[in-house]
Structure formats: structure tokens, C-alpha cells
């Protein structure tokens, strides 16, 4: 066991930012201090690791960041880290600081990077699931997902005011390139007439039938939630198709876009990020390498990164069943 | 004077909905009750007037509506009201209910309708400025404008989290087809790098220069606010042009869209709507017809509708000057 | 099995209101319609059952209630329902409407009422956990708890602005008469210096030592979260005691109070309430009587009411451990 | 004229913090940079001036502060600044940094300090009205007032959920020691049954009569807003008195307290603070000393500090009249 060897941990965020990343950084750093470790911030993800944008963190760096969206360590894409040469530079920089382990917060690409790096250079890393998309296995919920769902429903609540005032049909596009998790939560939470997700193909005819039957039931306003990565097309494309079938309808499209990534994290995400941040450091201290820390059934679980990023997380059939009952 | 004749007042909302419309309806209805009048809700604007969708209101109808976005009287376009026949039907319906005056809450088109109707049929009407665009003269602020500005900055605050985390350039399109009021308030309120409004032409070169100079000053993230009706094109079009000049920049576009219309009204809009709702009824009782009630320098003013809708409200030069100083 | 017999279900809310109650009512009613049942609203809880304040619900009653705090069916205490005579009246009223089953949404007292009623009169009932306190067994989270935690942290985020600006010590009292769930979530989520909960006794000396050690670590502002039912006294009492030990400190007390009960439910509570509302009706149809529907590890579970209300739900030791690490 | 002499400006916040203070600091500092001046942050108000807690500010210090509540320059009471010796020390420190003018953001006490200091040492100062209480003359609205009103109505909206669900009477105490501005805005904005302000004495009997008459009109829930400095006593005291007259009523009291001071500033406060921050620096450059910058009827006005702090700002009679009509 190399447990004794870990004295300096580097923390980085990578990929799309997610609310709660700051809370996770803070928890990891604070846990490090609790156990007498030195903690380093690696700025702008792997790119900063290559550029040697690395600074020792003290207590002041993590004051009043818990409640802020985004990531104060910043995030960036790094094409260079995909090359052998890039990773060599990154490794050399870590060694120059004496950093002997990593906490990597991000989505599947970011965690895969940590895995590769561990394979090549033996730098122990614990990954944390930081993405609003909730598309990582090994945890019931990723850091940022709950906040994104709340941002979405708050926006849709506002759109509903207008939909209802004008008896309109709104198509609202939410984030989720490969996964319908936000769409399902936001759809059930906003009494959507229909929810279109990447995991299921919904023919336009089916959607049109549903909207017609709701009109008969005198539901005069309707909101349809579309996950951006849906197989049936973008919200605008689907709206255009529906318009042909329902020409008398006043149809509008709103794309929530990047505002779903930001904002103060919710209570749930703060708690999740706090627990996982501590778990990342404790995991490293216990020799748990090349894993992602997550909460499953509210229990801490370390899953090998290769399993976490495999992309087999499925939407809850029960959620879809309930969504259907409630929108009929 | 026909003051004694007013015993039954009809209230309607028309055009795009705006937060605070419900508060204005409530205030008018409650003021009517205070003065012993009968109050009628005309649903779905002029269309409902033609369709005779008119109901007597009681205290219960206006309970817990003050704080809600949208309009519980609903709003709709009415092509038929643009015809002589349509207006004749509308008049007959009003007479059948004995309604002898109107409170019309909406934007320039809605108020112009009230003016025409007064010219043709002598139905006294007081208009209230209900639109998020703030493009009516005769009032410093329209009902809904303050809420829309706050909705915009709250959304942009979230977008900034991502912009900062990734050192990105965001173009955010806000509402304002003919008027840059929301753009200016949201732009100053969100530390925008630049604000593009319909009233001013900003060459792409000027914008690019500004962004370059800010990059030199090491402002790594930038937000540009674009009013939807801007002469320089949509946010997406401008972004595309800027991208050609600054190809290395990571540029994103977000269109806030209809969520700016909804939401619980702010304190300011509740107070404004409450005062104007009372003023509408008191104005009618005092024989002030064919006018719009507004607040100028916090004093109640009745402006002839024809003057209010003329579209000559100008943006505050001082605001533009301050915006420039703060973004340099 | 009496499965076929259920044709009319009465829904009521009872006890302190909680955000998401409306979403749960809506889901139950909508599920009832889906299965072809008649649904009745029993207003003001058991009191309304005795007063025969019972109305058949249609689709319109549950439009736009999902996103609203409180309960449109209202809630009330009922001393009379504690008497045999009261319950007899209540039963007679149910029978007069032909109501043959109940969905009861509320806390332990409300569910116990449903249990008693089932024992005495055989009226099948499924209870739903509707309380911000999260003190019911048989579900990981009660409806309203997540919203209350978010309301608390949003308020504390604001208080922190002042605490930090003035280097002050704030005692913030949150709800939780017998349970520290809100206090723990809000405490971790707001980087509290200490969290005082009913389940643990924290001597003032321990608290004072912690505050002193934080001062040494130059954490100049501090927030202490106190659950209202804490054994160590109210927030004000504890503040007064601490003041004696730390007279130089500028100490303030804020009691969040009833605002924690209200507000639009969060995404989590909307989803939870929606799933449980459907589960209540489906449970009754499947002959699951005298039980509470809950979600444990995201799976639907029906727990006998007598077990759900026993009050043995424990705070998560891991949460307390993490809270301690993060505040040290 | 000493216009040329101003090259280094110190900025401080003093007294109770208010949302928008950061936006005002940022605007002043940015305007200073625009005009080529050096800008200094004086931390913890006059206390920091005495302790020489003064740092030169650069662009980075004011990045992402606009949208944050509180004041990053911090605020503190200073008993020592009330002494000749204290002010002498403060002056010496300013001179040691070469600071030749001040921007002072705060309430009446803070501005009076700037006035005294100018009288004694000739240090030019422009004050900015930074207080949620809106009790300064020379400006229609103080920085922070609009945000505080919005915070209050958002909290009261939540309390109303519970009030309505239980048919309760709530007394909500808002800030305002000498002034009823927040109470009036929050009261009208939340459909309060009655508003008790320091400027008017409301006998308990009058309040009880109003509540009785509303009960007759079947308004089953009621909210009474009480400004903390009301002549009729605290919210709790008034509630206790009312309880004696209306023993059957379920009465609750909530004190909003310090959460009214914090939070992200509203659009209005960001714009106001931005304009006044620029005006402070430009005023100093134009030789406007010993004045407070404010906006009256949306025009920039410099008022002698001695006039601004005199405490003669009156509540709007029209607001009170409207409040009465709407609550009857």
C-alpha cells in the first residue's frame, strides 16, 4: 500500500461547468486540511496542468465559494492532453510541485482523462461526477443535476404564465445531449403535455394525437419538453412539424440553453458535493485509485472510472409511466 | 359631465402578457368595489369582448392573483376587432351587460384599440401601460418592465458563471423589438462588455475592437447583450460575424425568449400596478377618458392615448454614457 | 379482495402545510381520472370531513396548482376528530358522498388519524408523507423537506452577506421540533460553524471552543444553525449564553420561521409528490390499506402507517461526520 | 478650484450593509480607472481608516462583485472615529497613501462622518446613499432599498401560502427603525390587511376593527406588516394585543430580520448603484465636495450631506391612500 505517500493533492475541474463544483472543491480542500495534507488548485483543468497553472491553496481560497455556481478553478478543453507529449508535460508539472494524487471533478471525458493518466503515470486519482446531465453510472445523481432541474422548472414556470395567458403551445428545449434525465424531471415537475428524450423515439404523429386529445379535454395551454439531443430533432424542428398538423395553434419555442449550467447550487447539490469532496480525499488516503466516488441509495460507493463512464445509465421506467399518467 | 353614469366597468388585458397585469386588474377591481361599482372581467381581450366572454367579478376572483405572472383574464390577438363589424359586436356585448366604461391593460396596440373604440362608440376607457418593453410614453416605467429586467439579470448571472468558468464570450439576446430599455438595464446590471440596442447602430468592427481591448485588459470572459430588434441583426448573426474576426474565441449564444414575460412581479411592478389600477377607476369616475394612466417622476399623470402610443420614448443618454464608462 | 369496490376517493391535507402538497393532490386526482375514478376534495382536513366540506373535483380544480406552495384543499386542526362523535360524523359524511377510500397527506398526526379511522370504520386509506420535517419513517424524504432545505439555505446565503460584511456571528434558527434534518442539510449547505440538533446535546462550552478555534484560524464570520427543538435551547438562549463567553463578538439571531413552509416546491419535491400521488391511488386500487407510500432508495414502498409514524428515523451519522470535518 | 489635485480616491462602506454596495464600489473604481485615477479600498469603514487597512485596488478586485450582496470592503462600527484622536489617525493614514478624496457609501451616520472629516481636515468626499431603509433625503431611493423590498415580498409570498392554507393571521415584521418605506412597499405588494409604520400611530382598536370587517367579507387569511420601529410596538407585542380581542384567531408572528439586508441586488439597485458610483468620482473631479449623490426624478442631484441626513424624508401619502383602498 502506498497510503503513506500521499501528502499533496491537486484538485481540478474539467469539461462543462456544473453548479456544486465549487462546493466539491471546497470540501476536498477542507478535508485535505483536516487530515494535514497540502492542497493544490490546478486551474483550467488538464490545460492548466500542462501550462503549469498550479497554485497551492489556503483556507482563504475556498471561503464563500460553496454557494457559487461555476468553478473558481475554471475549466477548459485541452486537445494537448489527448497527446502523449501533453500528458508528459502535465506529469512533469505535477512532479515539480510534488503533487502525488488528484481529485478530478467533471463528466465522462474528464474522468476518462484521469483514468488514462493513472494508467500511464500511476498518479492516483479519485474522480467526482460533476455534470448537469446525470449521465454517469456509479452515482444516483451527479453534482449539478438537481440544480439544473430546478433552474429548468423555474424557467418553465415563467413560460407557463405566458402559455396560459395566451392558450399557447410552447416547446421548451432543455439540456441533455445523450440523456433525458433533466427533461423527465423538468417535464413531470412542470406538468408537461409530453416529454421527448434521446432514449425514446416519439413519432410526431403520437405527439400530435396527444395534443389533440388534450385540446378535447379543454387543456388550452400545453408545454412540451424536448431534450436537446432528442432523436426526433431539435425543439424548433419538432415545432415546425407539429405546426403542419395543428396550423391553428399558436406555437412558440424557447431554448433554455446555458443558463441551466449556472446558478447557486441547491441544498441537495451542496450536500452531495460536500460529501463527495470529503470522500475523494479519504478515498485517496485509503488507496482507492482510478475510481469515481458517488452516492448510491445514499451510501458512498467507489466505482472504477471505466465502469462509471460507460454510459449505460438508464432513465427510470417508473418516471416515464408516471409522466404518462399525469399528462393524459 | 357624465361622471354619474359609470356604474359598471369592464376590465381586459390585451397583447403580450406582462408581470403585474394581475396586480393591475386586482387593484382596479378592488377600487371599483371600494367605490361601490360593479366590475366585469372581459376574458381574452378584445376577442372575448366580441365573443361575449364576459363575467361579473367578485372578491374571490381577485384573491391571490396579485403575486402571479401572466393574466388570469387571459389575452389574445383579435383580427376581428380590427373590423367595423367586430367592434360593433363588441359594443353590443358591452351594452348587453350594461358596461359603461373600460380599463384596458396592454401595450400600444391594445391602447390604440381602446382609443378607436372610444372614438366610434363613446365608451370611456382608461388605458394602463402593461408591457415589458417600456416603450410607451406617458409613464417612466410600464407594468412588467422592472420584472423583465430582473428576470434577465438573474438569467445572465447564471450564464456568467459558465462564461467565467470557461473564459467564454456569450451573446445574450433579450426582448425589445423596438426599444433597448431591457437591454440597457440588463447590460449595466450584468457588467456587459457591450450593449446593442435598436436605437443605435453598432458596427461589428466597433464591437470587435472593444472585445479586443478588453482581452488586452485581461478581462477573460465577456457578455454582450443584444436587444432582439437590434439593427445589427440577431444575437446569432452578430456572433457569427464576430467569430470571423475573433476565431480563437469560444463563443456561445443564448436567447432568453419568453421566460422574460413571466414570473411573479417585483415589488416595484406590484406597487406601480396597484397605483395605476386604482388610478384607472378613479380616472373614469372623474371623467378622464381616452387616456393612459402612468407615473412620471412618481406622480400620477393621465396622458391622451394617442400621445402615449406615439413611440417617441427615448433611452436615457446618461445610461448609455455610464454603460460605456463601466465597460471600458 | 375489495379491489373492485373503490370508485370514489376523497383526498385531504392535514397538519402543517408543506410545499408539494398541491403536487401530490394533483397527481392523486389525475391518477384517479386516468383509472376512471371519481375524486373528491375534502377541504380543511378532518375538520372539513366533519363539517361536510367536501366537493367533487374536476380537471379544472387541479390546473396550475402543481407549482404552488401551500395546499388548495387547505388544512386545519380538528379537536373534534379526536372524539368518537366527531369521527362518526366524518364517516357519515363520507358515506353520504359514496366515498369509499381516502388519500391523506400530512405528518404523523394526520396519518395516525387515517389509521384510527380505518380501524374504526374500515375506510381504506393510503397516507402520503407531507411535512417539511422529514420525521416520518418509510420514506427517505418527505414531501416538502427538500423545498424547506432550499428555502433555508437561500435565506442563510443572504444572512451570510451581512455576516461576512461585518465579521459577525449569526445564530439562525430553522424548523425541526424533534428532528435535525433541515438543520443538518442547511448547515452543511451553508458552511455553518456548528449545527445544533434535537438528537444531540451540544454543551455551550463545546460550541464556544469551536468558535474560538475558528477565530484563531481567522474565520471572521460564523453562522451557527439551531434546530428549533434543540435540547440546548432556542437560538436566542444559546446566543445569550455564548455572548457571556465571547463578549467581544457582535452576535445576531434570526429565526427563519414560517417562511420555510411556503414557496413553490423544488424539482425534487414535485417529482416525489407526483410519484407518491399516483402511488396512493394505485395502492388503494391494489388493496394496500392503512399504509403510507414512500420512496426508499428511489423505489416505491408501502409501509404500515403505525410503523411510519413511530418516530425512529435517525439522522445520518455520515452527514454529521462530514459536517464536522468541513467546519473544522 | 482644486480639481486637478485629485489623483487618488479612497472608497469605503460603512454602517449596515446594503445590497448594491458592491455595485457602487465597482462603479466608482471603474470610473476612477476610466479617468486615469488611482483607487484605494479602505476596508471596514472608518475603523479600517484608523487601522490603516487600506489597499490599492486593481481591476481584479472588482471582478464579479457587482452581483453580490454585502460589501467586499466590509463594514464596521468605529467608536474611535467619533474621537478627535481617531480622526487624526485616520487622516494621517490617508495622507501616507496620498489619498486626496473619499467616496463614502452608507447611511446617515456614515455620511455624517464624511462631513465631519471634511470640516476638520478638508478631505473632499462624495457620499452615496447605501442603506435599505430609504431614509435619506436627496435621493428618491437609496441603494439597497429596492432589493430589500423584493426580499420582503418574496418571503411574505411564502408566508402567505401557509396563511391561506390554514386561514391564519400573520404578523410579519420588516426592517425600518424610523421609516415605513419597506413596510409600505411590502404591504401593498403583498396585499396586506394592514401596514403599521413608525410615521403613523395605529390604535389596536382600529386594527382589530379592520380585521373584523375583513372576516365579515370572508377574507379568511390576513397578513399584517409591521415596521420594526413602529410606535405601536413590535410585531409580537401587537399580535399579543390583537389576540386578546380576537381570541379565536390562529395568530403567528414572523420577524424577517437580517435576511432583508443580503442577497444579490435587483436590476434597479444595480443601475442606481452604477450611476451613483460614476457620479461620485465625477463629482469629486468637478469639485463637488461634502455632498451626497442621488437620483431625484431620475436626474442626478448632489445634495449637501447635512441636508441629506436631516431625516425629513416623508412617506408618500398617495401610497397610504392606495394601501387603504386595496385592503378595504
Automatic annotation (TrEMBL), chains A, B, C, D:
Cross-referenced InterPro entries: ATP_PFK, ATP_PFK_prok-type, PFKA_ATP_prok, Phosphofructokinase_CS, Phosphofructokinase_dom, PKF_sf
Source superkingdom: Bacteria
Binding site for Mg(2+): 108
Pathway(s) annotated for this protein in UniProt: Carbohydrate degradation; glycolysis; D-glyceraldehyde 3-phosphate and glycerone phosphate from D-glucose: step 3/4
Catalytic activity: beta-D-fructose 6-phosphate + ATP = beta-D-fructose 1,6-bisphosphate + ADP + H(+)
Domain Phosphofructokinase residue range list: 8-283
Pfam families tied to this protein: PFK
Active site: 133
Places the protein is found: Cytoplasm
Known cofactor(s): Mg(2+)
Chain positions recorded as ADP binding sites: 26-30, 160, 219-221
Gene3D superfamilies: 3.40.50.450, Phosphofructokinase domain (3.40.50.460)
Activity regulation description: Allosterically activated by ADP and other diphosphonucleosides, and allosterically inhibited by phosphoenolpyruvate.
Protein EC: 2.7.1.11
Binding site for substrate: 131-133, 168, 175-177, 228, 252, 258-261
Binding site for ATP: 16, 77-78, 107-110
Keyword Transferase annotated: yes
Keywords: Allosteric enzyme, ATP-binding, Cytoplasm, Glycolysis, Kinase, Magnesium, Metal-binding, Nucleotide-binding, Transferase
Record's subunit section: Homotetramer.
Similarity annotation: Belongs to the phosphofructokinase type A (PFKA) family. ATP-dependent PFK group I subfamily. Prokaryotic clade 'B1' sub-subfamily.
Function: Catalyzes the phosphorylation of D-fructose 6-phosphate to fructose 1,6-bisphosphate by ATP, the first committing step of glycolysis.
Protein name stated in the entry: ATP-dependent 6-phosphofructokinase
Annotated organism of origin: Algoriphagus taiwanensis
